[in-house]
Amino acid sequence: MPFLFSLLVIALMVGALVDIIRREDSQVRFLPKMAWIVVVVLLPLIGSLLWFAIGREYSEAGLRIPRMRAAATPSAPRRADPMPTAPVDTRSTEEQIADLDREIEEWRLRAEIEKRRRDSGESASGSETAAG
User: How far is CA 97 from CA 71, 77, 108, 111, in A?
Assistant: First the structure.
């Protein structure tokens, strides 16, 4: 019987080591992979059980382990805010393109007005310094 128990512990340890090594770092919790390997090698039974219980990140499709969460004190019932809906644009593609063309023309005209203001400002200040 002790021989069988030893074989089961060794098989569990090997299984845990293979599982740890094959996991990505993002799928390992609480300790780095190397630390889990050391724990499983030094304490085969306890380390393997700890690995499968808390160290391994299980996928959502697989085994679900309930996790304890901090109990929230309900002070007032929360009102569920409705999800904001994305604005729906009912304009056709041609109307949207026409609006973009008008915007582009508006920005072009604004840039031209700004350029003329700068040019007229420079010429006015330039004539004042020449007369001064």
Answer: 53, 47, 16, 21
Tens digit of pLDDT for each residue in 96-105?
999 999 999 9
Assign 3-class secondary structure to the chain: CHHHHHHHHHHHHHHHHHHHHHCCHHHECCCCHHHHHHHHHHCHHHHHHHHHHHHECCCCCCCCCCCCCCCCCCCCCCCCCCCCCCCCCCCCHHHHHHHHHHHHHHHHHHHHHHHHHHHHHHHHHHHHHHHC
pTM of the predicted structure, to 2 decimals: 0.43
Cross-strand partners of 28: 56
Residues paired with 56 in a beta bridge: 28
pLDDT surpassing 60 at residue 129: no
